[in-house]
Design brief:
Number of strands: 0
Number of helices: 0
Low-confidence stretches: 1-109
Distance between the termini: 31 Å
Number of domains: 1
Radius of gyration: 13 Å
Largest sheet: none
Mean pLDDT: 39
Shape: globular
Length: 109
């Protein structure tokens, strides 16, 4: 079905994290890649053997691993809501799924 950080062809992926500000940049049609997470903010878990091969997180990797619910990883996508996360123009923070409700939380200014 749907996988985290997997965007629709019509959508554009967020830019990489800014090394200085540690915040995701604004959307850009030129940069359609999943944004990398700051090593200081959270740590990745290994890929599930059923979904993909185990792979450690690395700034060099183009695809970030799944994140632990206890850290900062986006939860699994809801089958009914398969769409990219929305960004706040002011806060510029990634929206995370709610572990309990399993729904998108919009970060509004």
């Amino acid at each position: 079905h749907c996988k985290p950080n997997h965007w629709s062809p019509k959508h554009c992926r967020p830019n990489h994290w800014s090394p200085k500000h540690r915040k995701p940049n604004h959307w850009s049609p030129k940069h359609c890649r999943p944004n990398h997470w700051s090593p200081k903010h959270c740590r990745p878990n290994h890929w599930s053997s059923k979904h993909s091969r185990p792979n450690h997180w690395s700034p060099k990797h183009s695809r970030p691993n799944h994140w632990s619910p206890k850290h900062c990883r986006p939860n699994h996508w809801s089958p009914k809501h398969c769409r990219s996360n929305h960004w706040s123009s002011k806060h510029c923070r990634r929206i995370h799924w709610s572990p309990e409700h399993c729904s998108l939380k919009h970060d509004r200014p």
